[in-house]
Specification:
The complex is a heterotrimer. Chain A is of the alpha/beta class. Chain A contains seven helices and 15 strands. In chain A, helix 3 packs across helix 4. The N and C termini of chain A lie far apart (66 Å). Helices cover 34% and strands 26% of the residues of chain B. In chain B, helix 1 packs parallel to helix 9. Chain C is built from eight helices and 16 strands. Classes of the chains: A alpha/beta, B alpha/beta, C alpha/beta. Chains A and B meet through helix 5 of A and loops of B.
Chain lengths: 257, 431, 318
């Protein structure tokens, strides 16, 4: 039976982030968290393969212990079990660290044929963890996949990658890793029974000392500043006269003629 | 999942639903708590203050654990009339000590906490799920359908808020007229905690609750409110929907006017708006409560119209919590007798009558009608403020004794003495 | 050994990275070295600033570009550059990430610019966070310092007559267990929305595909082009992918951007933030687009746009 690992990240909902006008500091006080939207597509693709080929699907994440609620969320989307690789120090990790932690936890301990990741995460969007993990595990990878087919009797996958110059269809022997694009599928909305069922699925905790190594970053953040835009915020009514005034303003700005 | 049947499915993880689920779970019963929003409280909004008594009964000392903002030590009512205002402030230090009388709190945090207590007690919480239909067998409610999933239960507790879908589906809801509901709008305005404490002259983490009547509602039935949270202020208006439609005004415009009102602006000076929300509020009390119980279902909280607005107090959360508790106890007793019929669930009304819920709504039955009196929102604030202004003004004008001052003002206000007396009598008896 | 190393998938992109690298090489007092996918570009790269060009072995038909990863890694281990700039096309991003992993170094992906600390031989690189809500500055404490730079972040390097440089062939064979079965070129739209001076953007407020005509009519009166937000192209497919603007789509800098029924989420705004004037029409007054707009009309686009077109015709004498 095909064994699939689907990696996901619990990210800050960027809609809740506010920027302090004076210092341009990001205010993360009352942010809520969500499954990285790109990973929802990854999980859905894994479930699609389960439905077609009868695969075993496990979800994997690297997170601080406080992110526990991510497990119910991901399990309500279909995976049979979840691996929660957690440690208080696992916050603001850079992709080289995340990839290394995942590799350390998976290598030799968790069996897999295929690893599915989202193309990137909505917070950092480095688009690195997938390829980094593949390198560390010594397996092939294909990124930016928007169509996936598993060739059962040949133990390989055919992936269509959507690249800048067109579609590149590649054949990859398993074990392999792919990163998927949002247009590969439409993630299901968990139903009531799926949400309730999530609480019953097994979760395996993997802690830092089990991994037996440290994970040092290569990059160092020396500053984060909220983007600001100086805009006039002028409002006009919807009546013809007001619209006329708006047009006059645009003419004066020299942007229409 | 096999066709398992739960003792109860509680729809809506607001204060009513979470309390019902908590009490049921604590009693060892299997209960599912279903919430439409991605997290409990995400779709909820209220003025800003909860009276503690209802929750204290169920969770004594809840404030040790619950995410509350400030205990209210100061209550006030302010009459607004142009450049004049009259405030009646009342402080009571015992309100801000154990057992705390009331707290300001933020619903997203609080509702999530209350639902988590239900989960801790053993309730199964499912968020992001919208209940679409009731499952019926003959005239009896036997469960719910959400999307493609059906779930059976001995009792469904409809705690799904004002405009309850389930009460409508069961055919129990009364269509309400626009003047039976109000729209509440609110802004959360951030200010440093020390600024708030200083501005409102509060000790430590104590809080203030301010109600406003007069200009803020532009002559329409309604009023304004201000509650102090730890480091923000909840500022808003509650205006009758029928009135809004009649006067054709945009609520956001009146809200902006309220914020720039000379008596309000200094209170929120320097603050930054962090959130803007609006919600419907049931106003008509008993006149608009739906059928509360029937074969296989109970209705609690805002869904049951359990809100009491007397002008000087506005209560919703304590009613919701108490009715949730009553619903849970009703189900537990019905389970013991295995009778979930309308008759078996009729205990609900008895429990509501014994607690303050129906008792208070009944006692103040005439209040909503009284508060439709338009003089309350323009003429009387004007009278009170002008009278007080005259009282405190020393400008060399000829002396006037109090009695004449009052009668003169009343004559000028074109309110007849009889009308005033009648209003006063009615108000004193009904509010 | 030091040096600035540059790799990109196309000739144009390589010229842009050479531009990024030329001043860097001068500031760090080191050489600028570029990979070339074919000998035919070697001379050109040298004329545009490379001190050295390393020509890679050609790929077999069924080898993906990423087959170069082991070759590039080996060259880096031999050359030990201070900095390695990778062209961030989709393939380039995979290559960069895998190289960084093999070399145990850090990669600043989506690098939108950098400054040089000459004393410490350090790059201070900038990239976007939270879909463009914030800008992050990072340094890389390991070597080589790697940055992945998207196309058109830098202009192509200028031609410098008479430049001399070394051209060297890298003999290592590219390899990958991944085989390419087919390549299908994408159809390019006639319109390059990044060149348009006036853009009318179709958002979710439009109810059906036929209504896009309203946006076209508005664009026609103004002599502009029609673009859209991501869902219109990727999910609804009402417009081609070439014209959606946003963090993962096109970045545009028109004189005038008109968002019609566009909510203004950060993912979209990041793509249009350099517009000279932003004008939004949306019926929801709390839509985030109004925070990003110079001019706004709160109203139903089906009523506002026809009036706007009429008034424009009058004002522009059309």
């Amino acid at each position: 039976m095909l064994k699939i690992l689907t990696c996901f990240k619990w990210v800050v909902d960027e809609a809740d982030i506010r920027i302090d006008a004076g210092s341009r500091r990001l205010i993360l006080d009352r942010v809520s968290y969500k499954i990285n939207p790109y990973d929802r597509n990854g999980v859905e693709e894994a479930m699609h393969l389960q439905e077609l080929h009868g695969a075993a699907v496990a979800a994997v994440t690297v997170a601080p212990p406080t992110a526990k609620s991510c497990l119910k969320d991901v399990l309500s989307r279909g995976p049979d079990k979840a691996y929660f690789i957690n440690d208080p120090s696992f916050t603001d990790l850079e992709p080289s660290q995340t990839g290394a932690v995942l590799a350390a936890a998976i290598h030799g301990d968790i069996e897999f044929d295929l690893i599915i990741c989202g193309e990137g995460s909505s917070d950092l969007y480095t688009q690195q963890v997938g390829p980094v993990l593949a390198e560390k595990l010594g397996i092939s990878c294909a990124t930016y996949v928007n169509k996936l087919t598993y060739i059962e009797n040949e133990n390989r996958i055919v992936a269509e990658r959507k690249l800048d110059d067109g579609i590149e269809a590649v054949s990859i022997p398993l074990p392999a890793l792919i990163t998927v694009l949002p247009d590969i599928n439409t993630p299901r909305i968990p139903s009531l029974k799926q949400v309730l069922g999530a609480a019953k699925k097994p979760v395996e905790n993997i802690t830092l000392d089990k991994l037996g190594q440290s994970f040092d970053p290569c990059l160092q953040t020396i500053g984060v500043l909220g983007s600001t835009m100086e805009r006039r915020h002028l409002k006009f009514g919807a009546q013809p006269e007001e619209i006329g005034s708006l047009i006059s303003a645009l003419l004066k700005d020299g942007v229409i003629a | 999942m096999a066709e398992e049947k739960f003792t109860a499915i509680v729809v809506g993880a607001g204060p009513a639903g979470s309390t019902a689920a908590y009490v049921l779970a604590k009693g060892g019963h299997d209960v599912v708590l279903v919430e439409r929003g991605t997290a409990p409280g995400s779709k909820n909004m209220y003025g800003g203050r909860m009276y503690s008594h209802a929750l204290s009964r169920i969770m004594p000392g809840f404030w040790e654990e619950a995410p509350v903002e400030r205990p209210i030590a100061q209550e006030s009512i302010t009459f607004l009339n142009g450049g004049q205002s009259v405030s009646i402030n009342c402080r009571n230090m015992s309100w801000a000590a154990d057992p705390y009388h009331s707290f300001t709190l933020l619903r997203a945090e609080f509702d999530a906490w209350l639902a988590s207590k239900a989960e801790e007690a053993g309730a199964l919480l499912a968020c992001g799920i919208r209940v679409d239909e009731l499952l019926m067998d003959g005239g009896k409610v036997i469960g719910i359908r959400a999307g493609e999933d059906e779930m059976l239960a001995d009792v469904v507790v409809a705690a799904d808020g004002v405009n309850s879908l389930l009460a409508q589906k069961a055919g129990w809801a009364k269509m309400f007229a626009p003047n039976q509901v109000a729209t509440g709008v609110k802004q959360i305005i951030e200010l440093p905690a020390e600024t708030i404490s200083q501005r409102f002259q509060l000790e430590g983490n104590n809080g203030a609750a301010l109600l406003f009547v007069g200009d803020c509602s532009n002559g329409m039935q309604g009023g304004g409110f201000l509650y102090t949270n730890k480091s923000s202020i909840s500022l808003g208006l509650v205006i009758n929907v029928g009135e809004l439609q009649r006067c054709q005004v945009k609520l956001c415009d009146i809200m902006e006017d309220f914020k720039s009102n000379p008596h309000i602006a200094p209170l929120i000076e320097g603050g930054e708006v962090a959130e803007y929300s609006a919600h419907l509020v049931p106003e008509a009390g008993l006149a608009m409560t739906p059928q509360l119980y029937g074969d296989g279902m109970l209705v609690a909280g805002d869904a049951a119209g359990f809100v009491l607005n007397l002008g000087y107090t506005v209560r919703g959360m304590d009613f919701a919590i108490a009715s949730g508790e009553a619903a849970a106890r009703t189900v537990i007793e019905a389970k013991a007798r295995n009778d979930f019929s309308r008759r078996g669930l009729s205990r609900y009304v008895d429990l509501l009558n014994q607690s303050f819920v129906l008792r208070d709504l009944e006692a103040y039955r005439k209040a909503p009608e009284f508060l439709e009196n338009e003089r309350m929102f323009k003429a009387y604030p004007k009278l009170v403020t002008e009278l007080a202004s005259k009282l405190f003004t020393v400008d060399g004008a000829p002396p006037v004794h109090l009695m004449k001052m009052v009668l003169d003002r009343i004559k000028q206000s074109s309110i007849s003495l009889i009308q005033l007396a009648r209003d006063g009598w009615k108000g004193a008896r009904n509010l | 050994m030091a040096g600035i190393l540059v790799f990109a998938e196309t000739r144009e992109h390589t010229l842009e990275l050479l531009n990024a690298g030329v001043n860097l090489a001068r500031d760090l007092g080191t050489k600028l070295v570029s990979f070339a996918l074919s000998n035919e570009f070697a001379r050109e790269y040298i004329s545009h600033g490379a001190d050295e060009v390393l020509v890679l072995q050609p790929l077999a038909q069924d080898q993906p570009l990423e087959s170069y990863v082991p070759v590039l890694a080996q060259v880096v281990r031999e050359e030990d550059p201070d900095v390695f700039l990778v062209g961030a096309t989709q393939r380039g991003k995979e290559i960069g990430a895998r190289l960084a992993s093999q070399l145990n170094t850090g990669l600043c992906s989506g690098c939108i610019g950098f400054e040089v600390d000459k004393e410490k031989n350090l790059l201070r690189m900038e990239r976007l966070l939270f879909c463009g809500l914030a800008v992050q500055k990072v340094i890389c404490t390991t070597r080589p310092q790697m940055a992945a730079i998207s196309p058109r972040v830098f202009d192509p390097a200028p031609l410098v007559e008479g430049r001399e440089g070394k051209v060297r062939e890298i003999s290592a064979m590219p390899f990958s267990p991944v085989t390419v079965i087919s390549r299908t070129a994408r159809a390019h739209e006639a319109v390059d929305i990044t060149e348009a001076k006036i853009i009318v953007c179709v958002g979710r407020g439009f109810e059906k595909k036929e209504d896009v005509k309203l946006a076209r009519d508005l664009a026609d009166v103004l002599g502009g082009e029609v673009g859209c937000s991501r869902p219109i192209a990727e999910e609804l497919r009402w417009l081609p992918e070439d014209v959606y603007m946003g963090i993962s789509g096109k970045k545009v800098k028109p004189d005038l951007y008109i968002g019609v029924g566009v909510s203004g989420q950060i993912q979209h705004v990041t793509g249009i933030r350099d517009s000279k004037i932003i004008f939004a029409i949306n019926r929801d007054e709390s839509a985030p687009i109004f925070e990003a707009a110079d001019y706004g009309i709160v109203g139903d686009l089906y009523q506002v746009v026809p009036i706007l077109i009429e008034e424009l015709k009058k004002a522009l004498n059309k």
